[in-house]
Amino acid sequence: MVKENTFASHRVRHHAWMMLLATLAFVCYPSTAILPVVALVSFSGLMVRGRRVWQPLSRWGGVGNAITSLRWLLTGGVAWLSPLIDHTLIFGLGVFILIADGLDGYYARKYHTVSSFGDLYDKETYAFFVLAYGAVIVQEGLAGEWVLLPGLLRYLFVIVLSLVKAKPVALRPSFRRRWAGMWLMGTLLACFVVPSWLYLPGLVFAIGFVLYSFAVDLYGMYS
Question: Is the pLDDT higher at 171 or at 68?
Fold first, then answer.
C-alpha cells in the first residue's frame, strides 16, 4: 500500500486541478465528453512524467494494470457516448466495471506486480468512475449537480494534502470507508434502472455518508 502523502506530489496535484476545472466546464457547458478528454490528456501526462518516480517502465504492465485500463476506457466510453446509449446498458457496463475493480488488485497480487503506480492508477480510475457516472446522471436529468460532489473528493483530497505541511498519518483499511464506497456505487448505478422516488433518498444518504467518512479520515490523518 502506498502512503497517502505520495499523492501530494506536484504532478498528481496538477492532475487534480485539471479534473476540478473539467468538472466546472461540464457544469457550465453540460457535455460529459469533456471529462474523458481532459482525464485522458491529464492522466497520460501524469503517467509519462511520473514513471521514474513510481517504478521502472518495464513494470507498468501486468494483468492488474490491464484490467484497470479496461475500467478506465469503459468509464470514458460511457461518459462520451451516454447520450446515444440507453440506461440499461449504462447500468450493465457500470456493474461490469465494478466487478473488474475487484479483480485488478487480485491479479496484481497473484502475479506479484503490485506497485505504487498500480495503486495510484486504481485510485484515479475509481475517482474518474464516480465523477463520470455522476456527470452522466446530471446530463440525463436524473439528479442535480450536487451528485458530482463525491467524484470531486479524491481530487480535493490530493489538493488538501499538497497544501498542508504537516505529515499525514497513513490510513488503515476501514470497513466504514469500504461500506460507504459500496453504497455510493450501488446508488449511482440504481439511478439508471429504478424510479427516482426510490434512488434519490438512497443517493442523498450515500453522499452524506461518504462526506462524513471523508471528514473522519481527514481528521484522523492530522489529529
Answer: 68
